[in-house]
Design goal:
The chain is mainly beta. The protein contains four helices and 24 strands. This is YbbR-like domain-containing protein.
Length: 315
């Protein structure tokens, strides 16, 4: 059996160690360890059906360590930043960001390392359509209740947002209308993230000419004149005006009052141009203003004495 040459073996092992040390030294000198930041896209995975997640950042900052040569060739796409959404529940959830790196690269920092997201169930419900008007019809015309097709629309979105919606609005321009309008109206007033179907409804608005009649004007006076004066006469011009309104309203209109004319403390005639007080909703008055004249006169200083029978005063 040949004998081992321990001296030669020791030299060989020492040479190998020296070569390894030299290789590590040369490698570190030529291609040393370094650090570099990367802005990596963040993905959510495993979201259950029927849930919506908001508030998840689009990217995270990753600081990686590796040889200078490796880091130089890396791009953000070589990393994967993932949040596991499989265990989410409705409300606010705090989740850990997991980052994987290429072989030989060590992730030393992730910012943020945890993220907070808002989780909502996706729900659906029907709500009525409410019509609002922009502008006014032509003079002498009135607008009746609108009809909508369809009267109910379908909402879909996050539960907390959908539950806050009780109706949805369709706005129609009726400025100067002289007859029934049929319009397509886009539905508005929804919070972001809630969809509606259909997004457009058909609105029919009856616009009818209103009947007209003439009614007297009643001037209204407020206050009392200065001491020593009294109201002698109150006149209004014109004293009759035309009133138009929907038939049920017009039937109840028998007169129209003026806006009160204040004569508090005055000592001379008062002439004012004042408006009229509408006696109901949808009433149109022509003219819309009248002139009120309040004529004052002084009170007698000494009332005349009564003469007793016989033509002489008694003593």
């Amino acid at each position: 059996m040949p004998r081992l040459n321990w001296r030669n073996l020791s030299l060989q092992i020492l040479s190998l160690l020296m070569a390894l040390i030299l290789w590590v030294y040369v490698t570190n000198e030529q291609n040393p360890l370094d650090e570099r930041p990367f802005n990596v896209s963040l993905q959510g995975r495993g979201i259950p059906d029927g849930y919506l997640v908001t508030g998840l950042p689009s990217t995270v900052n990753v600081r990686a360590q590796g040889s200078r040569g490796q880091l130089t060739t890396l791009t953000p796409g070589d990393f994967q930043a993932v949040v596991d959404l499989s265990g989410i529940t409705p409300g606010e959830n705090e989740l850990t960001v997991n980052v994987s790196a290429p072989p030989g690269i060590r992730v030393i920092q992730v910012s943020p390392s945890r993220v907070r997201v808002q989780v909502d169930r996706i729900v659906e419900k029907e709500v009525p359509v409410e019509v609002t008007f922009r502008g006014e019809p032509a003079a002498g015309y009135s607008v009746l209740a609108a009809t909508v097709d369809p009267p109910l629309v379908h909402l879909k979105g996050p539960e907390r947002l959908v539950n806050a919606v009780s109706r949805i609005t369709a706005t129609v321009d009726i400025q100067g209308a002289r007859g029934t309008l049929e319009r397509s109206a886009t539905l508005t007033g929804l919070p972001q993230g809630v969809s509606v179907f259909p997004p457009v409804v058909r609105v029919t608005i009856p616009v009818l000419a209103m009947p007209v009649k003439e009614v007297p004007v009643e001037p209204q006076v407020r206050g009392t004149p200065a001491a020593g004066y009294r109201v002698e006469e109150v006149r209004v011009e014109p004293d009759v005006i035309q009133v138009s309104a929907p038939a049920p309203v017009l039937e109840g209109v028998q007169r129209v009052n003026t806006v009160p004319v204040d004569i508090s403390g005055v000592s001379e005639d008062v002439v004012r141009r004042v408006g009229l007080v509408a006696p109901g909703n949808g009433v149109v008055m022509r003219p819309e203003q009248v002139q009120v004249t309040v004529r004052l006169s002084p009170l007698p200083e000494n009332p005349p004495e009564r003469t007793p029978p016989g033509g002489q005063n008694q003593t």
